[in-house]
Amino acid sequence: MMSYLVVVSPLYLSSRDSHPSKDSMADSSMSLAEVEMAFQKFAVHGDTKATGKEMNNKNFAKMCKDCRITDGKNITTTDVDIVFSKVKAKTARVITFEQFKQALAELAPKRFKGKSQEEALQQMYGLIAGKEPANVGVTKVAKAGAVDRLTDASKYTGAHKERFDESGKGKGKAGREEIADTSGYVGAYKGSGSYEDKVKEA
């Protein structure tokens, strides 16, 4: 029985492996652009003065939590804090997008154990791409029924009732405090305010 040995040129193999296809390059650059957009959204979260170019530790931790990078097992909040401190400049309190990518490169092998560095990083990008802070758009209007019942002043009793007029409008300070009667008349006197008129008549 004859066997044949096929020899493939190493040059052929290396030329195939060393040049990723245009599609895979386009995918990675596209996902990186989406990761940068997510970075900017989380960077400005809760800070009206933020430009989106730098991210603080609090927002970095939130991003890791919202994007499920922090899983409590492979990566904990402590790991996230350590990596943030490691990649940021010594005196800085924020990280740039470049430093953010370094942080992801540090966390990726821990989060996706058994994967190559490149694979782990791509999966990391996949978790972040297109995401935004979780509480954006989550607040919904409460069901009107319950709110209406709680804010209907006509149903109030006791001291609370004294704080609103018939139309349900608050009386402000007058409804909250016992304001002393300085008119000079005895309380419950029905002819209060009639003194001036009686003097004129006399």
From TrEMBL:
GO terms for molecular function: tubulin binding. One of its GO terms (biological process) is microtubule polymerization. It is found in: Cytoplasm. It holds the Pfam family p25-alpha. GO terms for cellular component: cytoplasm; microtubule. It comes from the Eukaryota. PANTHER family: P25 ALPHA-RELATED (PTHR12932), TUBULIN POLYMERIZATION-PROMOTING PROTEIN FAMILY MEMBER 2 (PTHR12932:SF24). Keywords: Cytoplasm. Residues 159-177 have a biased composition (Basic and acidic residues). InterPro entries: EF-hand-dom_pair, TPP/p25. It comes from Knipowitschia caucasica (Caucasian dwarf goby). Signal peptide: none annotated. This is Tubulin polymerization-promoting protein family member 3. The keyword Cytoplasm applies. Its main location: cytoplasm. Residues 158-177 are annotated as: Disordered. Belongs to the TPPP family.
